[in-house]
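step 4 of 6: structure.
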Amino acid sequence: MKTIKKVLIALLLVANLALLAYYMVGIKDAPQVINAENVTIIEAPDQKESEIHPDFIKEEFVLILPEGENIALGKKIKDNGFTDVYGANRANDGNVDGSSYWEGKDYPNTLTIDLESATKIHAIRVALNPMSIWSKRTQTIAVNISLDGENFTDLVGAKEYTFDPDTGNQVQIPFDEVEARFVQLVVTDNSGAGGGQIAEFEIYSK
Amino acid sequence: MESKKRLFSIVEWFVILLLIVFLFLLAIKTRDKLSAVKDMVSMEESKLVLYQGPKSLRDATKEDLKAAKEKDRDFSLLHCTDTIVKVNGYDSYVYDTNVNHSRTWATDYMPVQSRTPITYFDFQGQANIEVTVEDIELASVKISPQSIELEPLIDRDNNKVSFTITEPGNYTVTFNDSPARALHIFANPLETNVPSPEDEGVVFIGPGEWNIESIMLEDNQTLYISGGAVIHGVVNADHAKNVKVLGRGIIDGSGYKTWGGSSAHIPLKFDNCNNVELRDVIVLNPNAWVLNSLSTKNEIIDGVRIISSRPNGDGITLQSCENVTVENCFVRSWDDSLVVKNYVGDSKNIIFKNNQLWTDFAQSMEIGFETNKGNKKEAIISDITFEDIIVLNNFHKPVISLHNGDDALIKDIVFKNITVENAQMGSGDGDVMPYLIDLYITENPNWSTSKDRGQIRNVLIDGVTVLAGKFAPSRIEGYDEAHTVEDVTIRNVEILGDKIRSFEQGKFQIDTESTKNLVIE
């Protein structure tokens, strides 16, 4: 019994000391300073002022108009319907800015200009606002002509044209010289809106 | 001799007992210490990503911080100099952006504007944040959202506040109970799935200050604005599908003059799109409204941070949209913060979840007034939910509002778990609608289009807690007996510590002729 007690005291002493040592030095607080390797600093480039982002620098586009004169400007123009406030007369007012554009309503959209008398023509230019906010889009357009405003004949069949602000946001449709009084665009698709959009409808005569 | 032996034996037993008790106590202490250490967030696992701001941004001077009209000062985004933020001992770049503390409409579009600091970083684990505001004598400091119960340590001698966050999120530090120079901290989680500049369809913008004018996203295109980048311009898409705007950078509109009613440059505008993702970006200084989707379907807006200060600076506006989720966003705006309207078609299946709002002007969560601007037959706004929304401040008009200004049917609307930290409805010219909750059918000279009036049906408002500020009234009013507000259940409303159990107690103004089946529980 005597020995057991002594052994017990010895064991308890050892256990106490071991646990005390563990308590005092064995348990470490979680580190409270961040490891420098775990800090990433994303550096800014050397700039003295705001710059045009390299991906947004564009080659200058030089617009070459068709030969002759735009004879559609200010002439009588009508459509078969328009969206919101974007009526036909916005399409030949000589202005492509802001809200000065026509937008058709239900396909097929037609936009017809009366040149007032039979005139020889050889090209059409269809333009949108060239600002990049007018995103690149395609429109499917056909061109018809007429001498009486009632009987139209096909001049250029329906074709998909790309309008891209980087290239002036315009398309030019040249054709062999022809005599017409009424020139009609028929739009059947626009990838950038619900109806055909034309900021300026120009017809060229030499 | 025997007695000596017995005494010795007793002493031995006493020593054994003592050692056992001591061991037991030591074991308890060890267990407690181990548990405490386990609970400590170890910085060993913590990570931090800091973004230098563009070197081209000018340091803000004291002159820049004076409240003034836009035309009378430099409106640029600046580098803040009076608020220093350190995260885990490292400097976090602080921007100085424009905010608006005026509460009255400016007919000349030139309200007096102020500035406030913002900073952002990414982290994992623990972020010890130390904020020094050299020009503010600290009487009190509030950290929002208050629900996280962060206790700041205030060192008044050195104008310094420190606190620790362990969860990514948007935090706002308010000094001396004033909105002036409140600091917005956007603490992001570490970034994953960063697109590569080489990926097809990716427009990648790295750190720095860049002019882009505008980018019109095309089908399957992603714009990535990295942390540390500031871009001046707008990001739009029209009739596009599968488009994304991602990244931690800033879209800044300070270079544009106020829209003045005619020339709005909308930083994030998505019309007629399908499958849109907008994540994380920060939008500052728009010249009008900020994030606008029109007739867009299947859209996720996640973690976008917005601060607007100029007239008509609505935060997130969804016009005739379907299947949209807006979550984890921060919107501080000088006009409605979250808005649903009908422009050309119906609006349905829209959820706003876990967003923080600070509404300097107009409403926090608004459906209306335009509910049928396109004069559509049988227009409907349905299945709209606002859930887990914290409104840090609401200074002007209602927090929760259905304003049916046209002939649409507004139905199946839920507001759930809405917390208002500071209710100041009715400030300035907001006194025309100083409500907490406003369910109202009306004809408005500015915003109504249709000749006939509409209906409001089946509204659940479950859980609205106002922590401080005013005990504002609420209103439920239809237009007439044929255009009514019906089937409204309101429950779990607590205002300034009082549980609201009756319409009278909640200061509800109810028009009995144009309302039916209203219940408060």
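step 5 of 6: annotate
 - Chain B has a mean pLDDT of 96.
 - The longest strand of chain B covers residues 347-361.
step 6 of 6: archive
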